[in-house]
Amino acid sequence: MLGNSDPGLTLQAQEPIPRYNYDFSRFMDWLAEASAEREIPGAALAIVSREGVRHMHTWGVKRIGVDESVAVDSVFRIASMSKTFAGAAGTLLVHEELDSWDTLLTDLFPGMKLGSSPMSRGITLKHVLSQSTGLMPHSYSNMLDHGVEYNRIKQQFDEIPTVCKPGECYGYQNVVFSLVGDAIEQSTGDSYAHYLEEKLFKPLGMVTASVGLEAYEADREATSPHRKFRSGWRPTSTNAAYYTVAPASGINASLYDMTLWLRANLGAFPEVLPQDTLVEMHSPVIESPYGNYFNRWSGLEKAYYGIGWRVLDYKGVRGIHHGGGVRGYRSEMVFVPDANIGMVLMFNGDSNLANDVVPQFLDDLLTVTGSAE
Q1: Which of 21, 48, 97, 265 is the residue whose CA sits 20 to 30 A from 1?
Q2: Any idea of the CA torsion for 311, 259, 228, 83, to the nearest 10 degrees?
Q3: Distance CA 314, CA 299 (A)
Q4: pLDDT digit string (tens) for 61-116?
Q5: Alpha-carbon distances of 318 from 14, 32, 282, 334, 360, rounded to whole Å
Q6: Longest dimension (CA), the chain
Q7: What would the pLDDT profile of 287-322 be if each residue is shown by its tens digit?
């Protein structure tokens, strides 16, 4: 108890100190039951701290009709969670002073016109990685859906409508986001895939992680994508075009790989991702407005995009999040730095159950709260 004999001094109320619930048995039981109810073909879940893996669980099969179970080294397409690696790669590029956040795309690529307005000449590397280019959201994602590859789509970049000045509004991109790969290749003389391998995959020990369709098809541990039909789940084809936007959606990884990636983002490997790099990646850059599935979570207070990551204020805590989805796959991950905990889940079926996983995890984490004593 604080004591002060001067009645003229007023004690200010202290902010509540979160107390986190680290018993995730209820969350895991909920997920197993919900997945079984939807008969999702295969899934892989991990919960990690900075120090190591707390829980790791897999269930189901790599491909329906083939008696081969999902394991911790089974490889999934991580879809848009690939953007978190692009964010790290871009930040490392800046910290190596090979580029700066203020580098204009028009300086890197003088022959490229981006956007329909002269305002878009001000688009920088940071605008691309923070989804704040000011260009029409989801520009040309429909062309990817129809199988058109990145290099063909780039020829139409000058036709993308400019909707605001760069840095002033949020607009999620897949195709335009992938310019970060071009920037890395232009600045380093190396391929984007090799840069990730040398700067992130190998140093972190991510031995099954890879970039691209060829690596995915050659991997004996790769799971198959599945779609739900009236008759049930069936294997489906792979849309190769989404692999051509590698920074946005081109990474393949196992559950074990992703435990290392989450731990790195919690600060476990400062020799690979130093603290100042993490702070830069995980800090809000642009507020993302209502309209996405995560904006409808009841506990969400504010949502932003940082550098390759979503930044969420959820029931009084700061969470760092990204999800992903391509044909036949869904994935979600989130971590709370203050709680030193993170979760990643991958499905080899495009189930909307993934939409509920992050709020369920955060709600369970925040079950126990209290005030300072």
Answers
A1: 21
A2: 40
A3: 5
A4: 999 999 999 999 999 999 999 999 999 999 999 999 888 999 999 999 999 999 99
A5: 19, 26, 10, 10, 15
A6: 78
A7: 998 767 777 888 999 999 999 999 999 999 999 999
What number of residues does the chain have? 373
Q: What is the pLDDT of residue 274?
A: 97
- Using pLDDT thresholds of 50, 70 and 90, give the confidence band for residue 18: low
Query: What pLDDT, on the 0 to 100 scale, is given for residue 289?
Result: 85
Alpha-carbon distance of 31 to 216, in angstroms, equals 27
pLDDT at 212 over 90: yes
What pTM did the predictor assign? 0.93
Do the Cβ atoms of 215 and 144 come closer than 8 Å? Answer: no
Domains of the chain are: 25-82+191-365 (3.40.710.10), 91-187 (no CATH)
The CA distance from 88 to 199, in Å, is 9
The runs of H, that is alpha helices, within the chain are 25-38, 82-95, 105-108, 125-129, 141-145, 150-153, 179-188, 192-196, 202-204, 213-218, 241-244, 246-249, 255-265, 275-282, 354-365
Q: Residue 21: pLDDT above 80? A: yes
- Identity of residue 88: A
* HEC letters along 320-354: EEEEEEECCEEEEEEEEHHHCEEEEEEECCCCCCH
